[in-house]
Amino acid sequence: MSDRVYIFDTTLRDGEQSPGCSMTVPEKLKMARKLVELGADILEAGFPIASEGDFQAVDAVSREFPWAQVAALARCCTLDVERAAKSLEHAKRPRIHTFIATSPIHLKYKLKKTQQQVLDEAVAAVELARTHVDDVEFSAEDGARTEPDFLEKISKAVVAAGARTVNIPDTVGYSTPKEYGALIGQIATALGDCAIVSVHCHDDLGLAVANSLAAIEAGARQIECTINGIGERAGNCSLEEIVMILKTRADSYPYHTGIHTEHLFSASELLTSIITFGPQPNKAIVGRNAFAHEAGIHQDGYLKEKTTYEIIDPRTVGVPEGRLVLGKHSGRHALNERAQRAGFDLSKQELDELYHRFTAVADHRKKGLMDEEIVRLILEGRKAQAVAAD
Ligand code: MN
Q1: Using CA atoms, how far apart are residues 248 and 241, in angstroms rounded to an integer?
Q2: Distance, CA 201 to ligand 1 centroid (Å)?
Q3: Which residues of 214-239 are buried (b: 16+ CB within 10 A; e: fewer)?
Q4: Does 114 score more than 80 pLDDT?
Q5: Distance from the CA of 182 to the center of ligand 1, in angstroms?
Q6: pLDDT digits (tens, 9 = 90+) for 30-52
Q7: Mean per-residue pLDDT for 123-136?
C-alpha cells in the first residue's frame, strides 16, 4: 500500500456551513487560491443543490483553478447528482461526492428507510454520477455508528458501481481511535486496491485528529479536513495538525502528503480574515501562542538550544519571526536576544532600562508583546536619553 496520504480540504464546504463561517463566492475564490498554493489534493467547494451560492462557488473554483481536483457534494438522489455535475461542467478534474446515511439511528429516524433501500439508492447515485464524471466518491454518513458488516457490504457495492473513493465519516464525533481504526481496517481490507478509503472526523470529543491518525495506520489514504479545524459543531479534523503530525513524527508515521507546510500559517491567517473568528491562542500549529516561550526558564533553555523546548521550527509552518510573543515572564536574556535580532546592540544600562519598561508594560496586560512593540520601547528609551543629554 502506498504511503501517500491525500488531503481533501473541506474548508469551503463543511467549514463554511458552520455558524460564523459563511463565505461569499469571491471569498471562497480567495481561500481556494491559498489552498491550491498550499498543495491540498482535492478542494470540496460546495453543496450545489443547497444554494445558488454553493453552485456558483463550485463553478467559479473549477473555472479559476482548472487543474485543481474540485469536488461537489450531493445526496444520493438524481436532482442532487445532476446539480453537482452541472456545477462541475468546467472542471478539468471534477469529482462528485455523493452521500447517504447508513447508521441504524439515521435510517430509523431520519430516512425511514431499510438498509436495502439505502444500498440501492447509493448504487444508483454512484452509477448516475459516473455517467457524468470518472471520479466519484461515496460517503456513508454516520459511518462510525453503522454496523461494520453493512458498511462493508455497501462499500463493496458502490465500488462495483464505479466509486473510486469510499469515505467512512465519524459524522457526530463519537468514535475513539481504537474503535475507529478497527472499523477502517475492516473496510480497507475488504476493498483492497479497488478504492481509496477516506475518513472525515468531527471533533465533538476532541478526537478528530487522533481518529484520523488511527485511520491512516489502519489503511485510510484520504483525510478530509479543514483549515483551523472549522466545521459543523466542534469542527472537523484540523488540516494543519494532521499534516504536521505526519511531518514531525515521520519516525512513527511513515506517510507523506503533498502539503507545502510553509503556507500553513498564512492559510490560517487568511481564513481568520475572511470568517468571524480565528483559532484559539493555544491552538496547535497556528495559534498565536503556539511558538511563544514565555516562562523565563523555558526561554533560557530555548535560547541556548531551540530543541530544548521546540519540536517544530516555526519557519516550517511559515510563522514570521516577529509573531513570537514576549510576555511578563520573559527574562532579560530573551529580551536582549529579541533586541539584537531587530538590529539593536544594547549596552548593559540600556538593557536594564528596557527590561524595566518592558515588565511595566507586560505586567499590565495579559497578552505579551510583539517584536514591533519592543522596538518601539527601545526607540522611546533612546529618545528619552537624547532629550536628557540636551
Ligand atoms: Mn462533516
Answers
A1: 10
A2: 7
A3: bbbebbbbbbbbbbbbbbbeebbbbb
A4: yes
A5: 21
A6: 999 999 999 999 999 999 999 99
A7: 98
Q: What is the DSSP letter of 106?
A: I
Taking a C-beta distance cutoff of 8 angstroms, is the pair 63, 90 a contact?
yes
Torsion, Cα 164 44 7 119, to 10 degrees, reads -30
* Distance of CA 236 from the midpoint of ligand 1 (Å): 7
Kindly state the DSSP code that residue 256 receives in the 8-state scheme: B
Measured between alpha carbons, how far is 101 from 141 in angstroms, rounded to an integer? Answer: 4
- CA distances, 31 to each of 9, 61, 144 (Å): 11, 10, 30
Are 37 and 263 spatial neighbours (Cβ–Cβ below 8 Å)? Answer: yes
Ligand 1 centre and the CA of 237: distance in Å?
A: 10
pTM for this model (two decimals): 0.88
User: Which residues line ion ligand 1, judged by CB < 5 Å?
Assistant: 14
DSSP string for 109-124: III---HHHHHHHHHH
Domains and CATH numbers, the chain: 6-274 (3.20.20.70), 292-389 (no CATH)
Rounded to the nearest angstrom, the distance between the alpha carbon of 185 and the centre of ligand 1 is 21
Q: How far is the CA of 143 from the centre of ligand 1 (A)?
A: 11
Round to whole Å and give the CA distance between 144 and 124.
Answer: 23
Q: Which three cell numbers stand for residue 93?
A: 478534474
Answer yes or no: is pLDDT of 233 > 70.
yes
Number of Cβ within a 10 Å radius of residue 185: 17
By mean pLDDT, which of 101-110, 242-251, 281-290 is the weakest? 281-290
Q: Averaged over 203-227, what is the pLDDT? A: 98
For residue 21, report the distance from its CA to the centre of ligand 1, in Å: 14
* Cα 15 to ligand 1 centroid, rounded to whole Å: 8
CA of 249 to the centre of ligand 1 (A): 27
Q: pLDDT tens-digit profile of 312-327?
A: 999 999 987 655 667 7
Work out the mean pLDDT of the chain and round it to a whole number: 93
